[in-house]
Structure formats: C-alpha cells, structure tokens
Write a structure and sequence with these properties.
The chain has a single domain, classed as BirA Bifunctional Protein, domain 2. The protein is globular, with a radius of gyration of 19 Å. It starts with 7 loop residues before the first helix and ends in a 12-residue tail after the last helix. The protein is built from 6 helices and 6 strands; from the N terminus they run ααββββααβαβα. Strands 1-2-3-4-6-5 form a 6-stranded antiparallel sheet.
Length: 219
C-alpha cells in the first residue's frame, strides 16, 4: 500500500474519540481506525524506513493501571524509530493535525552526562547556534523534562543554562489539519521536518550518542 495521505475520516475518527473515549465507540469505529489511520501510518513508516530506520506504530491502548485518567484509548496515532547514532524520529496524527519530531527524547544517565559536558565546553556554543537557527525557521526545540535550575556542578548564570537544564533535546514541528494532510504531500512535510532537525541531531550523535548502560540502569 502506497502512502496517499491520511483520509478526512482519520481526523473525524479522533474528533469522535475525544468526545466519546469508550470501548463502545472504538468497537463501532474500529474499521475506520484500521482503514483511515493505522494503514496509512504504516504505509508512511514503510516508505521512510530506508533513510530513517524502521518506525514502529505505538499501540492505540493506554496503560491505565496507575493512571487517574481511565480513558482506554490514545487520542492520537504515533510511530517512533531510532537511528544507529541514537537519535529518535517521531510522527503523530491526531484531530489537531500532524506533529513531527527528531532528537534525543529522554537521555539515559550516561547520555545526559556527555550532553552536559559538551554543552559546557566550547562545542556547546555550536549547539546553541543550531537551536537558534531551527527556531528561526519556525521549529521548536523542546525537552521531555528539564530541571528548574542549573544541574549540580554548573553555574546558575551559565551562558547555556537553558540547554544544561534539559534532560533531552528534540526539534518539533506541528501543523493543523490542512488539505495536504489528505495527500501524499504529508510525507514531504514529515521528511522536511526531519531534514531541518538534521544539524541538531548530528551534533547530538557526535557528542552524545546512544546509551552504553544496561536498560535497568539507564534512568
């Protein structure tokens, strides 16, 4: 199946799910999810896999075991892949439109140590310039989590304290629902966003790289 965009039904499906996040709604509209959401997203992932590594779709079900919010389904469809260098690539569809990101989403302990050392050194000035450059192009440089102040051992008035406080670094771009979302041009938007993030991702791959810690010790 070639990727031809996300049909309008994909958006209306998630609009309905936001209004009625129940098993009854899901059962009544599962065919729409399969046809208009999951299959196009899988087709998109298949087409970008050669360059960006295989992306895997997240399950549509929420883990509600320890959550106060017991709604059973995610109100978006996301896919994620990780390069050999350690960077993650993400794409998400929801009733709000399309969200695309790339970078290091949640650094392990050893990654975070290397990141902070590099940001503190002269190499950090290069990263700060790269982040400003992508922000001028309309992208956001965010983090999954960040400290309220400078990490231990770093000055609070460090010239790059905003970067030092971060526990990850990702370049993000989102678009509202527009006609191109329902066409193959949506793939071009995704790949253009990842390409725009390449300079930041390359810096991270060079100075941080993948974690070398066992999974149980990484966080």
């Amino acid at each position: 199946m070639a990727f031809q965009g996300f049909p309008p039904e994909a958006v209306t499906f998630y609009e309905g799910l936001a209004a009625d996040n129940t098993k009854a709604y899901w059962a009544a509209h599962k065919e729409v999810y399969e046809r208009a959401v999951r299959r196009p997203m899988q087709a998109l992932c298949d087409e970008v896999a050669e360059r960006y590594r295989p992306l895997k779709l997240f399950r549509p079900y929420r883990d509600v075991r320890f959550a106060r919010d017991k709604t059973p389904y995610k109100e978006h469809c996301g896919a994620y892949g990780e390069s050999e260098g350690g960077a993650g690539y993400y794409v998400q569809l929801s009733s709000q439109g399309l969200l695309v990101g790339a970078g290091y989403y949640d650094m392990a302990k050893d990654q975070l140590a290397r990141f902070r050392d590099a940001v503190d050194a002269e190499d950090g000035a290069e990263l700060a310039a790269l982040v400003r450059a992508v922000e001028r192009k309309g992208y956001a440089a965010g983090a999954i989590g960040e400290l309220k102040t400078a990490p231990k051992g770093y000055a609070r008035d460090h010239p790059r304290v905003e970067l030092l406080r971060r526990k990850g670094l990702i370049v993000l771009r989102s678009w509202p629902v527009e006609p191109w979302l329902h066409t193959a041009k949506a793939r071009q938007k995704v790949e253009a966003a990842w390409a725009a993030a390449d300079p930041v991702v390359s810096w991270l791959d060079t100075h941080v790289g993948p974690s070398e810690m066992p999974p149980d010790d990484a966080w």
